[in-house]
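Hi support team,

I've been running sequence recovery on a batch of backbones for a student project. Most finish fine, but this one hangs at about 90% for roughly twenty minutes before it completes. I'm not sure whether the input is malformed or the queue is just slow. I've pasted the structure tokens below so you can try to reproduce it. Let me know if you need the job ID as well.

Thanks,
M.K.
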């Protein structure tokens, strides 16, 4: 059995990836500092897979702890999610973001090199493309100057990995996610936003649940069909499966370069108002919303050309937007009932 380290494995995307790895016969060891999740997620993963992954509560900024971990664990690969991800907060506290997102990455790569561990998967973001000049966005689209320190950590992260692959000879894949949404169908794991959600779908589900009064739709004067901004919303379970495909590509040495990157989305663009309408349709809930000004830093439209991932990773998003929104709603209802 191949043993894979998943950093940030108790977070939203990380926990879904752990489940898919265990379903694909990988042994998983998780590192998480619990800064944006809680340890119960470990039991909830076990409820789905009947396997409790090994877990270490480690802050990856503590270099000695990272060194100790690698000394004591033989690994076949690393999937790295542990990072701060709030765009607004990153503008206020850029150095916290650089310290957390960059230092942790560097320490991990140093230990991989020292301990001869190959196969690294990095959680990157479509934010690296900014407002792309052409849609859908292919991997050939240029990387644009980052809009936020958070976005910059993804760009710098990819560069650090690329340089390291070249110098130390290991193999890595960066997955550039579009907008991950939804929850596992079991409703045992999902997204746990702290405080007021910044992302659209948790705000939608919390509004439908009565936790928020109304959804603010940020701008209806974009040059799109209904004037609201367009994104590519991908079910988190589909996204999780892309990681297993990427890992298998590296383990089977099918990669064509020692650093590769892939867009992970559905290929379909959906406007904010289409999200509202589809949510209302699948849940039968009426959603209070009002149109407000655009949110600074938001782009008009982003959706993926997923051809490269479809062919090279032999992976394709299979879930519908309806299924993703319904799963997000069921997850929200479960959280509301707990309170
Ligand atoms: C955001 C981040 C992006 C990050 C991603 C992670 C920004 C500018 N970008 O992407 O860097 O990788 O989250 O998931 O924050 N919207 C509303 N009302 C709301 C919330 C959102 O109308 O209350 C709209 C937004 O204007 C946008 C769409 O919904 O058009 C999606 O927003 P969001 O979920 O925040 O994702 P992104 O902004 O695409």
């Amino acid at each position: 059995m191949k043993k894979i380290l998943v950093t940030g494995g108790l977070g939203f995307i990380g926990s879904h990836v752990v489940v898919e790895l265990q379903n694909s016969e990988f042994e998983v060891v998780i590192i998480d500092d619990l800064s944006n999740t809680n340890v119960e997620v470990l039991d909830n993963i076990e409820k789905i897979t009947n396997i409790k992954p090994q877990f270490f509560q480690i802050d990856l900024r503590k270099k000695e702890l990272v060194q100790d971990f690698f000394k004591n664990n033989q690994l076949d690969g690393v999937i790295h999610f542990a990072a701060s991800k709030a765009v607004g907060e990153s503008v206020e506290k850029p150095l916290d973001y650089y310290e957390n997102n960059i230092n942790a990455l560097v320490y991990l790569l140093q230990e991989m090199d020292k301990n001869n561990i190959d196969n690294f998967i990095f959680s990157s973001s479509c934010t690296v493309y900014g407002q792309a000049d052409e849609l859908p966005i292919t991997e050939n689209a240029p990387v644009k100057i980052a809009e936020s320190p958070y976005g910059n950590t993804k760009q710098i992260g990819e560069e650090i990995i690329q340089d390291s692959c070249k110098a130390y000879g290991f193999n890595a894949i960066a997955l550039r996610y579009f907008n991950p949404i939804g929850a596992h169908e079991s409703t045992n794991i999902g997204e746990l936003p702290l405080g007021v959600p910044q992302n659209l779908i948790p705000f939608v589900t919390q509004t439908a649940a009565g936790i928020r009064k109304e959804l603010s739709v940020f701008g209806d004067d974009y040059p799109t069909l209904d004037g609201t901004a367009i994104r590519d919303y991908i079910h988190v379970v589909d996204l999780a499966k892309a990681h297993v495909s990427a890992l298998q590509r590296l383990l089977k040495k099918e990669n064509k370069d020692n650093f590769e990157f892939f867009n992970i989305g559905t290929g379909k663009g959906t406007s904010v108002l289409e999200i509202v309408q589809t949510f209302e349709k699948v849940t039968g809930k009426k959603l209070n919303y009002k149109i407000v000004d655009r949110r600074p830093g938001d782009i008009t439209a982003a959706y993926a050309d997923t051809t490269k991932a479809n062919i090279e990773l032999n992976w394709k998003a299979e879930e519908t937007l309806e299924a993703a929104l319904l799963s997000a709603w069921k997850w929200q209802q479960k959280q509301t009932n707990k309170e």
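--
Follow-up from support: It reproduced on our side and the slowdown came from queue contention, not your input. Residues 87, 125, 127, 151, 179, 198-200, 203, 215-218, 229, 231, 272, 295, 297-298 surround uridine-diphosphate-N-acetylglucosamine (CB under 6 Å). No action needed from you.
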